[in-house]
Every structure is written in C-alpha cells, then in structure tokens.
Amino acid sequence: MNKIELEEVPLNTILISVATIVFITIGLYMAKWGIGFYESVEKWGQLGDFFGGILNPIIGLAGILLLAFTLRQNQIALRMTAEELAQSRVQLSYSADALQKQESHMKLESAERTVVYICNEIEKEYNYEDPPIQFGDRTISAGRSLLKTARSLFDGTLDWNADKPKTIMGRFSDKFGKSLVLLMMLAKATYNKDKDIKKHLYLVMACKLDMQFLCVAYSEIVKLGKQEKWVYTPEQLEFILELILEISKLTRFDLNDHRIVKHFTE
User: Fold this and answer.
1) pLDDT tens digits, one per residue of 155-176
2) For the chain, domain boundaries
3) pTM of the model
C-alpha cells in the first residue's frame, strides 16, 4: 500500500498573489487617474465600482482555490485514516493470532505437566516392591512389583492351559487399586482437550508408561467392568479403556487382538 502524504496548502502563495494584484491594481489606478478625497459622491462610487469589479472576482477566485485545497486535504486525510485503520485491523489480527497461539501453547504445557506428573506416579506405583520380611537369619520377599507381575504374563514358557496365569492375574488385581485411580486421573487430564493437544498427550503417555503393564491393566479393567463391583461405574471404566487403546495405537500394540486380553476378557 502506497503511503499517502498530506499536501501543504499554498495559503501564503495565494495571499501574496492576491495582495500583489491588489497593489498593482491600486498603483495602475493612481498612475492613471490619481486618488484623493473626492467632493463628489459619484467619484467615490466610480472608485468603488472599479475596485469592486476587478478585485472581487480575484478575491472570490482565491477563496474558491483555498476551499478546493482544503477539501482535497480532507479527502487525503480521510484516505490516510482509512488506510491506518486497515493496517490497525491487520496488526490486531496478527496480535489475536499470536495471543491464541500463546494461549494454546500454555494450555499444552499445563496439560503436559499434569500428564507427566500422573505418569510418574503410575511408574512409581507399578515399580514399587514391598520391603522384604526378615525372619531371623532368613529374608523373605514380600512380593513382586506390579510391573514384574504383569511382565511374567508375557513369559513365552507360560502354560496358558494351567492355573498359573490366573494366579498371576490375581496377584496383579490385589495391587491394582491405586494404579486404577491414577489411570482415571490420567484419563480426566485429557478430557475436553483439543484434538492436537490430546494426540500430543497420548504420545507423552506412550513414551512414559510400560505397554505390558497397560495391556494387563486393560484386561483387569474390562473384568472389573463386567463384575460391576468397583467404585467406578462401567461407563467411567470405559473412559480409561479408551485412553489405553489410544496409547496402544501409537505403539502398534494391538490390545483387542492380544492373547492376554482375550484370555482374561472372553
């Protein structure tokens, strides 16, 4: 957009030109006919007619020129104002976009911090092992962590026709309560978030959490939903299941077709 500049009104030029013409006219009149205190009113009338007939059109023309220049200045000023307003609207739109991006970034950072914190708590929970019990000179293990229990179901030598998988799943179920609460908190952290933010949060969860643990947790939650005896309703448990499925999609871990899930949910 070309910059428009106000033109300076040639007021001095017009006034000097009018004054010059007036002085020339008076000088010519005095050189030709002279001037003085006439005794006849008719002489004064002729003098007035002479100056009025010559100077009035000149002064009128000067007034018209000044008015024309003033109108032109007003038009240029209005055009400049319109262009400045247009530029202001563009700058405001840029500012609005920048503020929106900043707000989205802040929301993403806040959600990410929350998700990372909950994932850390889940990691602590499924890695926690009870301290060993001391009986005299003997030290007895108090039990394996949730993660180790879950991973034992992925042992290739495990006989799925025996009772051992069921026993392992029972141990997992006994310690799963707090992890379930944390998974519900994790699901709520993604609730009502934008699609792009959700995708990023799912990626963070996939990087933080162990998929073998989530696979067994998925099977346990499906089982709890069928029993309907947990503090959460089946609809709330379904919310967690959807979250785990979304995480699994990013890791190419097909939960619906996995042997462990089929064994404990069918």
Assistant:
1) 877 787 788 888 888 889 888 9
2) 11-101, 128-265
3) 0.62
